[in-house]
Amino acid sequence: MIHSVSGDILLTRAEAIAHGIAPNDPFDRGLARALRERWPAMHKDYRHWANTHRAKPGDLWAWGGHGVRIVNLLTQEGDLGHGSRPGRATVEHVNHALRALRQHAEKEGYASIALPRLATGVGGLDWADVKPLVEHHLGDLAAAVYVYETYVPDQQADEPGLVAAS
Q: Which residue has the higher pLDDT, 79 or 152?
């Protein structure tokens, strides 16, 4: 079931955080930056993975460490060269990445996943185009899905079914 929530996704109690990135993403903007600052080893491990695999939009790369699971969804075009910025997200890439997220969540047996309004910040898509894809791919998932539709810094969201931190 999908729940729309307001709060700071970094304070989620969900088992995994999923978010959108680009192949060879520098993790220097938006949620990716906040995740990199909190878990720098994740970005280091991603760079290694991206350099040893042919990462492409629509793929997924999952990381677990320090009691957290991060699912990186490749929703954007990659950068075009050294020092350039990653490209924009596309509905097609989001569609493929959400399909991969569903398969990954089922395989891993996640009970809960938190995600932002995927690909609408740095990715540049309109939430009205992305939300139906989230509903289609994750709406009947066994895991609870918490979509952080409104960012409220330093505020823990009311995530139905999850116990608040004390």
A: 152
Place 92 in a pLDDT band, splitting at 50, 70 and 90.
Answer: very high
66 residue type, one letter: H
Of 14, 32, 17, 9, the residue nearest 89 (C-alpha): 32
Axis crossing angle, helix 127-138 with helix 91-108, rounded to the nearest 10? 30
Residue type, 61: W
Q: Three-state DSSP class for 102?
A: helix
- The backbone torsions φ and ψ at residue 130, rounded to the nearest 5 degrees and listed phi first, read -90, -40
C-alpha distance across the termini of the chain, in Å: 25
Structure token digits, residue 23: 């192949």
Q: Decide: 158 and 14 in contact? Cβ < 8 Å.
A: no
pTM: 0.91
**Three-class DSSP category at 153:** coil
Q: What angle do CA 66, 103, 118 make, to 5 degrees?
A: 70
Tell me the H-state helices in 67-114: 91-108
Q: Where are the beta strands (DSSP E) in 117-152?
A: 144-151
Helix (H) or strand (E) segment spanning residue 19: strand 16-21
Per the prediction, the chain carries an average pLDDT of 91
